[in-house]
Amino acid sequence: MRRTDTGERSRRLGTEATGATEDAGAPVIPLAVPHLHGNEWRYLRECVDSGVVSSVGSFVDRFEREFATAVGTDHAVACSSGTAALHVALRLAGAREGALVATSTFSFIASANAAHYTGADLLLVDSESATWNLDTERLHAEVVRRARVGGQLPDIVEAVHVLGHPTQMEPLLALRDEFGILVVEDAAEALGARWSDGALAGRQVGTAGVLGCFSFNGNKTITTGGGGMIVTDDGELARRAKHLTTQARLDGAGYVHDEVGYNYRLPNLGAAVGLAQLEQLPALLDAKRAIARRYRESLADAPVVPPPHADWAEPSCWLYALLLGPDTVDPSRLLRALAGRGVQTRPLWRPLHQQAPYATTPRLGGAVAEHLADRGLALPSSAGLHPDQQQHVIECLLAALQPARGRP
Ligand SMILES: *Cc1c(COP(=O)(O)O)cnc(C)c1O
User: Fold this and answer.
1) Which pTM was predicted?
2) For ligand 1, what atom is nearest to the CA of residue 219?
3) What parts of the chain have a pLDDT lower than 70?
């Protein structure tokens, strides 16, 4: 990626993406916008020129093949969204009425919705402070306890790699080995993240569970406009995933279907953009990691807690989020102060157990997730964020934190 001209283009992209200028004509610096500077136009033009724009197209096949190679799995099945990918993956792993799916209460609501669509019951698990991911040791202890008293065990753990930081997998793999509990990974935010130590050293997230899912929504590391992917090493599960995402239609000329499937296919147009984006993945990850490094270094003395970075993990740094220290302003005031200076920020998710659809769902703890929601703030992290723009974000942030630091 050539820094100079991507900087110029991203500045323009930022202006176009939000359309608004809030102070002195400066463009708003957006939270997370796509970076479309590769073969997107060329591949889209090929689609349009050939007339093959919908779901049976060579870009779908190519995108699936090259995605599987990039992530390190045998199979990849493209879907219309990350949520659709999770829905099908969870169903294939056995989620249905009467089954129990454990997942993180601190996540985007799609993680829980996808499980809910299958008819399964949910168990929401608090986060661990070390990674902000599902507290896998707490879950492990609870499963052991339930097994002892004859309680219901989860059938599936849906492990969300929150904000691109890998989940600590050993306790989950132990649950698989001891109790047959399957792991489905919600890697929507974590494309390119790896484990760097332990049994999974060198492996990318999405490849440790029986099935892994990714999202290509506009704010994710790569985008298809909207889309998702299921990855697996199991050929039969991949075949079933393709079948379910294409209305469960049997091969042949006729309209013969052997079960209730879904129209969850990714159009060729989206796959064309996705393939072009995938070609840029190493550069996009480099850019995101450099952004994270600059925030971490520049804010080292500020009254904020940086996002997790365990020494056994190589996060994707999809979105940089920090926690405001206890004696500083609250996130909503900071958000308004930064908005006034043209910087878009966002609070972290309200935990799922505090959302209307899941308010009465059984859970393990929740205080850590609530703290993350109370004190967390996500900063501009687009791959095209120019260092000058980032410097502006940092200066605005430090200035907004300043008055509170002087207070008794
Ligand atoms: C974005 C996201 C999803 C859903 O992906 P879509 O493509 O928007 O449907 C699921 N889980 C997590 C954690 C996400 O961040």
Assistant:
1) 0.93
2) 1
3) 1-26, 403-408
